[in-house]
């Protein structure tokens, strides 16, 4: 039985971006809640530097962070009312499975919630399927909530309640402050997945180099999520720091280049006088939130593949030529209202407290269809919570080969 007086929540994260979401989310809840953070032991665990960056600016103690194995997680090892699965899809699915399989279906005492760490528009069925066994799914804008609602409209069986909060690392209560156009520092925020091609990424570095040379007083910073070879939420085929060294070796960027690379907290980079450029990154929202000039690159397309359709009609889409000329647009209020900068009220916090109290009273029910759903969870999803990705791929290939061999054997006997 839970003896804690305040509503309580345990966040379980597995990578750098999800750990940042967990720490900022719990900080937003504040000391009215009992809060704990665990880090799941997976192949994408953040480095010590990434952990420090995730805790920076929060009221949580990084030294209290516990590292756990998801395979050891069961309902009776959790004292909190709510488990916030702030993790990649397979890990969320495994966390949910571990809790749901070890609690009574007609009197569950642990509520399960999840969210994505940044822009979740457009909604994807794959991401939803990993998380659909939960009690609630948190969206961070009205546009996101509508898109997920449309996706599940008419679907039978259990679906999580869609809640609308605000990205917890955004400070503004509604519209952000007006932009200041004096740019002393240009910050580029990479996205690990896009653009995918090497030559596209090189073109960004070359444009940043040109902006630096045309504006001698300008500081140009490439704010890395991780250095080449370090773990992060998504694999990066062509890290920018490696490409920079390649371009210098080819003498396409001079040895006297003033481009600077850094890791650590985005908050440290987005100081007064800064401007931000990205293809698709949550950092764009952090920049807008601080009233800084912000530009979303359209040179490689504005599409679902580039993960930047959410910025259509935002007023801040531009090109590499705009980067070189330090030309930035103003965000439109209609877009801001629908996308991440809605006015905050108390409805989300109240809904979360109600969910916590229902859990403490043992009033949560588990739909039998949900249990059937998690039992059908592919083996490869469970393996990904513990094994390195290359080993998982080998095991999956062996499994397919075994099935194929058995099928051929059965055919030869018939």
TrEMBL record:
InterPro entries: DUF6716. Pfam families: DUF6716. This is Lipid-A-disaccharide synthase. It comes from Glutamicibacter nicotianae (Arthrobacter nicotianae).
């Amino acid at each position: 039985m839970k003896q804690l007086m305040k509503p309580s929540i345990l966040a379980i994260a597995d990578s750098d971006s999800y750990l940042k979401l967990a720490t900022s989310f719990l900080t937003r809840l504040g000391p009215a809640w009992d809060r704990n953070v665990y880090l799941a032991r997976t192949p994408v665990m953040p480095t010590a530097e990434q952990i420090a960056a995730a805790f920076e600016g929060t009221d949580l103690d990084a030294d209290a962070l516990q590292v756990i194995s998801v395979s050891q997680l069961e309902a009776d090892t959790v004292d909190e009312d709510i488990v916030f699965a702030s993790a990649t899809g397979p890990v969320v699915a495994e966390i949910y499975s571990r809790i749901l399989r070890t609690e009574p279906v007609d009197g569950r005492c642990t509520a399960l919630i999840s969210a994505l760490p940044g822009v979740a528009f457009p909604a994807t069925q794959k991401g939803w399927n990993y998380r659909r066994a939960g009690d609630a799914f948190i969206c961070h804008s009205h546009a996101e909530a509508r898109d997920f609602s449309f996706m599940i409209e008419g679907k039978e069986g259990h679906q999580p309640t869609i809640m609308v909060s605000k990205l917890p690392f955004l400070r503004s209560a509604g519209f952000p402050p007006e932009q200041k156009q004096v740019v002393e520092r240009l910050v580029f925020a990479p996205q690990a997945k896009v653009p995918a091609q090497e030559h596209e990424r090189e073109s960004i570095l070359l444009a940043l180099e040109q902006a630096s040379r045309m504006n001698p007083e300008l500081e140009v910073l490439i704010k890395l999520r991780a250095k080449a070879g370090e773990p992060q939420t998504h694999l990066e085929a062509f890290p920018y720091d490696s490409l920079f060294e390649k371009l210098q070796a080819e003498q396409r960027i001079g040895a006297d280049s003033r481009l600077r690379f850094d890791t650590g907290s985005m908050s440290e980079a987005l100081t007064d006088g800064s401007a931000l450029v990205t293809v698709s990154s949550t950092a764009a929202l952090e920049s807008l939130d601080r009233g800084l000039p912000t530009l979303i690159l359209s040179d490689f397309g504005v599409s679902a593949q580039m993960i930047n359709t959410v910025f259509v009609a935002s007023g801040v889409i531009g090109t590499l030529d705009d980067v070189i000329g330090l030309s930035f647009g103003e965000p439109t209020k209609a877009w801001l209202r629908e996308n991440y900068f809605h006015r905050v009220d108390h409805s989300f916090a109240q809904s979360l407290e109600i969910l916590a109290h229902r859990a403490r009273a043992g009033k949560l029910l588990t739909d039998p269809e949900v249990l059937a759903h998690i039992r059908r969870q592919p083996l490869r999803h469970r393996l990904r919570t513990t094994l390195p990705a290359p080993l998982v791929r080998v095991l999956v290939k062996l499994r397919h080969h075994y099935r194929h061999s058995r099928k051929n054997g059965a055919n030869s006997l018939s």
